[in-house]
Design a protein that fits this description.
The complex is a heterodimer of chains A (113) and B (115). By secondary structure, chain A is mostly beta strands. Chain A has a single domain, classed as Immunoglobulins (Immunoglobulin-like). Chain B has 115 residues and is mainly β. The chains are: A mainly beta (113), B mainly beta (115). The interface between A and B is medium-sized, with 27 and 28 residues.
Chain lengths: 113, 115
Amino acid sequence: AQSVTQPDIHITVSEGASLELRCNYSYGATPYLFWYVQSPGQGLQLLLKYFSGDTLVQGIKGFEAEFKRSQSSFNLRKPSVHWSDAAEYFCAVGALRNTPLVFGKGTRLSVIA
Amino acid sequence: DTAVSQTPKYLVTQMGNDKSIKCEQNLGHDTMYWYKQDSKKFLKIMFSYNNKELIINETVPNRFSPKSPDKAHLNLHINSLELGDSAVYFCASSQGQGAANTEAFFGQGTRLTVV
């Protein structure tokens, strides 16, 4: 079965600084990888996804993520963080068969002035 | 034109009561899910339905009973509510089974508080 690890529970960055959120997955075959964002009191919104092809994927709100098979990682990046990016970020992995997405435990991002 | 809608958004109830949460999707998706998000924000799958048929039932107490009258709806009924049931419950849908080349679309969540 697949699993996801997000090593950082909470990250604080200054507005305008760059951001990288880590995600490591465990799955025996080619994974389908996702990053979702959850703003306070809201549902989950998809930021970006990777299925195949180019290992650097672009998403909404200026986010990107890079799939590195050798490291079993799918880290999320943003060159310049805005205060509105403060939220909970979830990495998720999916599989070919009829299994639902498996989520990491999330990373809470705080943005300071 | 909300894609996945859940009602109610907030639900406060006493222990021992029975309650239902409704979910509807207008995306034409075949698969729907219920996830539970605990106080530590951990999201865990509870159930998965494909074309009204139960395909995933994780270790969830049998007090929880999903019902899918048609493929656009997946309701969650909870009997004899306990304090530990307090959580945010998310409904989601996707085009295929599991990830199947598509992402899951989530509702806004239902915050259940059992007192």
